[in-house]
Amino acid sequence: MSHLFSEFTLKGVTLRNRIGMSPMTMYRSTDGRLDDYHLMYLGARAAGGFGLVFPEQIAIVPEGRTSVHCAGIYDDAQVEGHARVTSMIKKMGGVAGIQLGHTGRNGSEEPPWAGWGQIAPDQPTGWQVVGPSNIPYGAPKRPYPVHPMTVDEIKAVHQSYADAAVRAAEAGYEWLEMHFAHGYLGSSFFSPLANQRHDEYGGSLENRARFLLEALDAVRAVWPEHLPLTMRLGSDDFHPQGTQFEESVTAIGWMKDHGLDLADVSFGGNTDDMVDPFWNDVSAWVAKAGRIKREVGIPVATSWNLGVPQNADAAVRSGDVDVVLLGRPALPNPHWPVWAARELDHPSPFGLVPSDWAWWLENFRGHGPSIGWPATDAETEVAAFEADLSEPEPNVVAAGDVPVPMTEGASR
Questions:
Q1: pLDDT over 70 for what percent of the chain?
Q2: How far, in Å, CA of 3 to CA of 6, rounded?
Q3: Which of 9, 84, 177, 349 gets the highest tally of CB atoms within 10 A of its CB?
Q4: 400 and 261, same structural domain?
């Protein structure tokens, strides 16, 4: 039976475990480049035991970024920074994955801690956002008009996906995911909430999936066949007029026929007006991912509320999920896999870190907890029990019927 720490092989790539770090937008890039911050941040997670490590969504064109502070791979000058990151991830035992995307009508934004508002296209840090139709995401955060893409512009974006994939391979990435979720361009073409076109890219499910399939074809034509090509799909908008999960099951079947190797299942994100989303549910997407795996016959990954080791392990052991992706849990704890291994009684949890670190951690002397690693619940219980057994009886003498403690140096 597969478990969280079993290897996973997809095409010619083997992950050392089933734990991946999700892409998370960090707003730390200048001119779209990865720099020392990304080298530190991503290398630390690989050293911490993650089998698959993604930077943030990487834009295929400048206007495909979330903000001017976000990363891209649309320029040859950006390849060097990516190559430094992939080299470090590989040295630390992980596989470097890249998620290619275009934010579409959700771009030209301020960072969330600055209000997450959309920047006007005539401002120095803003630009004209694009989408399948001229439908803004919604006021007040995104009030500016959306430019509906022409067919020629769609074809140009598909070529940009291919060009970015070529650079990704040059930079040393071994796993490529296409971001068609969370309200970004691919997701908006797939959703009737954002796509009200009347040409071959709108209307029916087949037409709404066309943008995604053609982008997939463009990348498949240039991405090495022995390396995994995966996709994060916004599979449900949680809205009666939006993307329905049943449609997504069908579309992923088509994508498999077009060369997709794994489906990463997530939400649509094309509206804030959602009906009964299950954000707070533990293992929220596991059951839906499992259904796709069984009905389409394709490996799957998912994220959302899997940061408790027992839940992540259960998702893999059930057979519903092949790779667990963790976003926020990876931020406070870059060694989440090691912690999870200890919680799950893995026989060699420190075997997940680089060998030189592992030697020191496995051969420490002195007071165990003082190595700076929290004890597991079981270890805490054992330590308390042993302490209770070893505590000496009070050293007392009798003075009548009242016990009197003996002080150091006292004579009898």
A1: 90
A2: 5
A3: 177
A4: no
Contact 83, 172 (CB under 8 A): yes
Beta strand extents in 212-346 (DSSP E only): 229-234, 262-266, 300-302, 323-326
Give me the active site residues, please: 184
User: Quick check: helix, strand or coil at residue 52?
Assistant: strand
Cis peptide before 369 (omega within 30 of 0): no
Per-residue pLDDT of 107-165, as tens digits, reads 999 999 998 899 999 999 999 999 999 999 876 778 899 999 999 999 999 999 999 99
pTM of the model: 0.90
Q: Strand, coil or helix: what is 229?
A: strand
The pair of structure tokens assigned to 197 is 């076109």
CATH code of residue 56: 3.20.20.70
Task: Say how many domains are in the chain.
Answer: 2
- 24-38, 82-96, 386-400: lowest mean pLDDT where? 386-400
Which of 376, 387, 336 lies closest to 48, judged by CA? 336
Residues 194, 200, 204, 207, CA torsion sign = negative
Q: Write down the H helix ranges in 26-104.
A: 36-47, 79-91
